[in-house]
Amino acid sequence: MKKILILLFGLIVAFLNVGCASIISDSDYPVTFQAQDGQKYTVKSDTGQTMLNGVGTQTITLKAGGNFSCNNYMVDAGCNSLPVNSGIDGWVFGNIIFGGLIGLLIDPATGAACTLPEFAIVPVCAE
């Protein structure tokens, strides 16, 4: 009986130590930057780090979030820039049913609470 209680307790602890979005979603997302052929642009993180120096349409995997904040990016085409903002992953709300309070802490810490768009349009520059 004691072994069964220990096993049951271990399963409960393991179940409560995961967040719903951490189970279902990812924290890294491929984002395709759609640009005209030959259009040059730079993708920078919200900290100013250059993530991509692109020409034309390219796809890069970006981290949606971590450390309890969502990451935002900026596409700069020289003449104009546009934000690529993270959003809240809908699976975070699954913590109400599945992950509990611990899930509400784990999901933001791992970046799984945030999501990025699949596509981003690079601003067109008239030459």
Span between termini: 78 Å
| Record field, number of beta strands | 11
Question: Main sheet?
Answer: 4 strands, antiparallel
* Secondary structural class: alpha+beta
Give the uncertain stretches in residue-range form.
none
Percent helix, as a range, is 10-25%
The averaged pLDDT comes out at 83
Oligomer: single chain
* Count, helices: 3
What global shape is seen? Answer: elongated
The gyration radius over C-alpha positions equals: 19 Å
Strand content: 25-35%
Helix and strand run = HHEEEEEEEEEHEE
Read across the widest sheet, the strand sequence of neighbours is 3-2-7-8
Describe this structure in words.
The chain is of the alpha+beta class. The chain has helices spanning 2-16, 20-24, 100-110, and strands at residues 28-34, 40-45, 50-55, 58-63, 65-66, 69-70, 73-76, 81-84, 87-88, 114-115, 119-121. It has a four-stranded antiparallel sheet with strand order 3-2-7-8, with no helix packed on it. A three-stranded mixed sheet has the order 4-1-11, with no helix packed on it. Strands 5-6 form a two-stranded antiparallel sheet. A hairpin with a 2-residue loop joins strand 5 (65-66) and strand 6. The longest helix is centred in the first third of the chain and has 15 residues, at 2-16. The relative contact order is 0.27. The model has no long low-confidence stretch (mean pLDDT 83).
